[in-house]
Amino acid sequence: MKVLLSLFLLLSLAAVPLSAETHVHTIIPKPQLFQPLQGTFTLTEQTRFDTATPLAANALEYLQQQLQLNADYTIKEGTSPRHNHIAYLLDSTLKDEAYTLRITQRNIVIKAGSPSGFFYATVSLMQLMDHRIWSQERSGVPKKAWELPACYIEDAPRFRWRGMMLDSARNFFSVAYVKKFIDRMAQYKLNVFHWHLTDDEGWRLEIKAYPLLTEVGAKRGPGTRLPFALYPAMRGPKDTVQQGYYTQEEIRDVVAYAAKRSVSILPEIDTPAHAKAAVTAYPELLQDPGDKSRYTSVQKVGNNTMDPGLKSTYLFLDRVIEEVTALFPFAYIHLGGDEIPKGAWSKSPAVARLMQKEHLHNMKEVAAYFFTKMDRVLEKHDRKLIAWQEVRTHNSALRDDTVIMAWRGDGAGQRAAEKGQKVIMSPAQYLYFDQQYVKKDGEHGHTWAGPTDTKEVYSYDPTAALRSPTAAQFVQGVHGCLWSERALTESIADYLAWPRMLALSEVGWSPQEARHWSDFERRAFESGIKRLERQHVHYRTAVK
Ligand code: TNX
Fold first, then answer.
1. How far apart are CA 340 and CA 512, in angstroms?
2. Is residue 388 lining ligand 1, measured as CB closer than 6 Å?
3. From the CA of 358, how far away is ligand 1's center (Å)?
4. Which atom of ligand 1 is nearest to the CA of 274?
5. pLDDT tens digit sequence for 224-270
6. 0.90 exceeded by the pTM?
7. What gap in Å lies between CA 492 and CA 487, rounded to an integer?
8. CB 241: neighbour CB atoms within 10 A?
9. pLDDT cut 70: percent of the chain above it
10. Is the CB of 483 inside a 6 Å radius of any atom of ligand 1?
């Protein structure tokens, strides 16, 4: 039996085309082109850098900071001698995010046309170094010499949108954790941090015009206005107050931190549903006092929506968005739009008046009216709309550049792309990292869309289901979601996210035809996790 098994293993190994590349690099996500060259380059304190372009500044700063921590030196600027030298050169023929990296025994030459290109080249360079380079705390035994295998890399992403969502509403995550999360995204070339800042269970963003949003809406549990467990699936001790929000100053700091790492932040203000915290803070603005409807969301939260029949709802959101716009420079704002409960507004006199005036026939049309109006609000503030897929279903009045996030299975995203609508793929069965890896007692995570192990994430091809060849251009990219009803602590959040985020990184970046699980598995589980260990990430160790 053993002999048979080894024979089988040998044969299956032989069946995988073993390019030279498979042996020499451990870069995640896998670059488009990797050519091994002869020899190694050794980076030391004597190495000099040379850069004629300010576009490389963030990349260089990142490398220097890691060297300072782990080598106890930074490298100095200098153009000669022309060996033992790293050059950052501007090449404007290279598109945003693209780069080339040539390492020879004598020199390193990095070329890019954008800050992100320089940053990604640097991240690849660092992944070729000993994994000690990734440590975030000062090393007691600094490593002085760093060997790099000579090679040539040409690289650019498959998708321009490679996102990851963190839900700070259900469970609050500290600024320090959010920064770590963003930093790790950047290390794997993920470029959009989607920050779920409001939900039934909490409003986490300071809004100067409406202080009660955080005074009332950022706390839940005994003695507060929000019960601890709004959602029965919510885990955690029910007898303590759970609270937290981000001040505007903290937000600015996080936005700047992310920008240095080529990560944009997409803020989400979930409307009109998933808004129990907001409607509890400002019931007189957001709910019709004459509304006798009683309803619960799919997650069993009662009367959790803003009323689209009230003028004050739009005035409120307009002012909130004005502040959000001042904080987040990204071109898009996410307005939620998911899971409007059945029965919402059914007895709202304000909605009845709206329906009559605007000739709306049902609640779907009311929701469509709401989003059309909100899209105009965003337009006024020079922002584009992103929303969960529900928003497109009955609405053709949204601007063409509206992007939907398809989360309910693969089909919705596919249909949107085929209709020529911009879409980000976030199918729950592959990319919801709040789901269990495997179905097992004691395993962290939800069960409704999973289980989803790392291999399953890796197997996802965002355009595989498309029937028309022109549809692929509407797929903007991919997006993982870490909802936090069950991610109670940072270490559980880490566990749920890693190593699945390594797989996401490659799904979003690497060419489909270059992706093979066995090759990824080696890079991820032999080297990728060593880097995570260096940063004390509580990743899930088991492959299965
Ligand atoms: C569905 S996906 C939700 C979230 C939950 C998540 C739990 C979506 C747009 N809504 O409110 O947190 O499932 O997996």
1. 36
2. yes
3. 31
4. 11
5. 999 777 666 666 777 888 899 999 999 999 999 999 999 999 999 99
6. yes
7. 5
8. 12
9. 93
10. yes
**Contact assessment for residue 102 and residue 152, using Cβ atoms and an 8 Å cutoff:** yes
* Neighbour count for residue 236 (Cβ, 10 Å): 15
Between CA 460 and CA 406 the distance in angstroms is: 14
pLDDT 10s digits, 148-191? 999 999 999 999 999 999 999 999 999 999 999 999 999 999 99
DSSP line for 409-464? TTHHHHHHHHTT-EEEE--HHHHBTTB-SS--TT--SB-SS----HHHHHT--TTT
Q: Would you state the pLDDT for residue 276?
A: 96
pLDDT range class, residue 503, cuts 50, 70, 90: very high
Mark 20-59 as b/e (b = at least 16 C-beta within 10 Å).
ebeebbbbbbbbbebeeeeeebebeeebbbbbebebbebb
Residues 164 and 472: their CA atoms lie apart, in Å, by 21
User: Does ligand 1 come within 6 angstroms of the Cβ of 338?
Assistant: yes
**3-class DSSP state of 521:** helix
Q: What number does the ligand 1 atom closest to the CA of 405 have?
A: 9
What is the predicted pLDDT for the residue at 8? 44
Measure the CA–CA gap between 193 and 213, rounded to whole angstroms. Answer: 23
pLDDT in tens, 51-71: 989 999 999 999 999 999 999
Does position 198 have pLDDT exceeding 60, yes or no? Answer: yes
Listed in order, strand segments (DSSP E) in 171-276 are 192-196, 198-199, 202-203, 219-220, 242-243, 264-271
Alpha-carbon Rg for the chain, nearest whole angstrom, is 25
Pocket flag, ligand 1, residue 432 (CB < 6 Å) = yes
Strands (DSSP E) contained in 214-288 are 219-220, 242-243, 264-271
- Ligand 1 atom having least distance to the Cα of 336: 9
Return the ∠ at Cα 202 (arms to 201 and 205), rounded to 5°.
Answer: 160
Tokens 């699980």 belong to 517
The confidence score (pLDDT) of residue 4 equals 45
Distances (CA, A) of 220 to 82, 120, 346, 482: 62, 41, 28, 21
* Euclidean distance between CA atoms 156 and 462, whole angstroms: 17
